[in-house]
Write a structure and sequence with these properties.
The chain is α+β, with helices and mostly antiparallel strands and about 110 residues long. It contains four helices and four strands; from the N terminus they run E-H-E-E-H-E-H-H. It has a four-stranded antiparallel sheet. The longest helix is centred in the last third of the chain and has 14 residues, at about 70-85. The chain is globular and about 40 Å long.
Length: about 110
């Protein structure tokens, strides 16, 4: 996937996570009220810079904040698809939210239907 500085919908990023490089990072709106339709960006963080704690200008201009390394996003999606091979976008989003809130993978077998 071309990593031009552009906005995506979170649903597209989760459903196509394999298309993004693992070394990128996911940025979402600062308000933390995320949904599948939330805008986001997948950006490469320059780890060689001294100002590593500064958000990329594209993120700042679009009022986004760093959320996760993209390797974590890919791990979330992979784990969800191992449990639910036909995981839909809502299930991927639930897995994402669970990981962000708990720093752990969701166990779909323990969820109420």
């Amino acid at each position: 996937m071309d990593l031009q500085e552009r906005l995506h919908q979170l649903r597209d990023v989760l459903c196509n996570s394999e298309a993004f490089p693992w070394k990128a990072a996911l940025y979402l709106p600062k308000n933390g009220d995320w949904q599948l339709s939330s805008v986001c960006a997948v950006l490469i963080r320059n780890q060689d810079r001294e100002d590593i704690d500064e958000e990329p200008k594209f993120a700042v201009v679009n009022d986004l904040r760093y959320v996760l390394q993209f390797s974590d996003v890919q791990g979330i999606v992979c784990n969800a698809k191992q449990q639910l091979p036909n995981a839909n976008e809502d299930e991927l989003f639930r897995a994402f939210e669970f990981y962000v809130d708990n720093d752990a993978f969701i166990d779909f077998s323990n969820e109420e239907s």
